[in-house]
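Question:
Write out your own:
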Amino acid sequence: MESLQTVVNSWNDFDTLRHVIVGRADLTCIPPSEPATEAKIPSNSDMRGMWGPRPLATIEKANEQLDSLTCLLEGRGIRVDRPTPIQWNQAVVTPDFSTQSMFGCMPPRDVLLTVGKEILSAPMSFRCRYWEYLAYHTLMQQYFDDDPEFRWEQAPRPRLTDRSYKAGYFDDITIEERLERTAMLDFVTTEDEPLFDAADVLRIGKDLFCQHGLTTNRRGMKWLQRHFPNHRIHVVNFPGDPYPIHIDATFVPLRPGLIMNNPNRRLPEDQRKIFAANDWEIVDAARPAHNSPPPLCYSSVWLSMNVLILDHKTVVVEASENYQMDQFYELGFEVLPLAFRDAYPFGGGLHCATADVLRVGDCEDYFPNQVPGTQIS
């Protein structure tokens, strides 16, 4: 669906969606081992030691479901743009590191952070994702030409030397030991340079909530605070998650005043205070319908809560996630089921597979009652 004029503007994940980017699975690779990917892959995963192009049949199935998402959105009057895949099966070589291949462009939410009239390309903490922003370069140029108020920004490109990671971080340790480390805020990423993925940043008007975990460090949050001086940057973490990567299968805003939290990864009590002080309700997400992720998938079964909100009353949910759909019905939403599990292995769920360009709404202050100690310092 074409628009006469591109307008970039989005302050949250729940106002009415009018323009969005949907990813593509073409040419996606399973990346080779590197410090960041090793920290993410469970020790018993069938993906340990695997790398290279994903099977063509799986790519075709994923693209069918991404195309179906595009059709659903366009059918509701939402403009959809798509990235331009590059040959991901190429080595990444910089003066500081090399790795045998890249990743893909199914999850634009990981790379692109839309804050108001700006789209910011995140630095990314995986070496295999160093050049991923190039898949969106043509779109960013188009938006720049179309919208005279659009700000096209790039976070500082990291060097990603060995100093950016803790060597042997997850070698031969149990899940319990992983949980102890994450509870102590001990992550594979160091504070050597600013690092963050866009999908670790939760946008709620004037407040940005950033997950401190395996892909985002405090130095990255400090950079965000200086870059967005009119926003308040808050640090959140979820001690129940042994693999804390990206916030959108853990803590999901549904509409003003309502957030869904993964019951296995609860927000700590001291970090809940700012939500209670501003009359926000935090509800536990429904349990997933599946006991395991699809084959060759990095992500957990909690992609069940990785949904796409179209407006304050409408949500797209993976079609087999019956419990999650039932919960949304109970919360008063119109639920649009969409088969999407074949796309999961390529980078995540429905929220991951999209990036906002335009949502109708302004930068509201949803947290006028600030709580001391929650902001980055």
